[in-house]
Amino acid sequence: MQIKNRQQFLTILTLTAVGLLALDRIVRPPLAKIWNDRAARITKYQEQVKEGKLLQAHKISLRGHWEDIQKSALPNDPTAAELQLSTGLSHWVDGSGVTLAGVAPTWKQGNDPAYKTLECRVDVAGSIDRLSEFLYYMETDNMALRVQSIEMTSKDANGMNIGLGVQLSALVLASADVKK
Known about the structure:
The protein is an alpha+beta fold.
């Protein structure tokens, strides 16, 4: 090999090695990041498709469940809603045999205009058996209720009479198409 050709060959080889090193250090990392981001998006989309297919498969039961929620929600009229909650409360008290000490309803409107809640503080007193029956009647009622908190206090020295404070919220759907 001649010297001139050898120098050109080494120059080309050196430039190629430097070019490949530059590609490896400068071009490959952004391309790898783009590729990894694309793979993560594809995985996320595949999970969303799987979730969508699962929702489609359970469409009938989900719609039935939503209809049950709509039926168990309180009416959008404040007076009718408070009356329905009061009627339910009197059934729970009568069925369990507890003594009603106080009721304090409060209306709450959240960020979503599609629903509001009727929050209510209920204070009752009785034996532990009667209080557990009261809670059972309340929890098994088909009214859309959620118990926020429960407080128990002793009302006498031997603990036979117990006070129960229940903070609950009832769902009121604002849409006019709620079926009762």
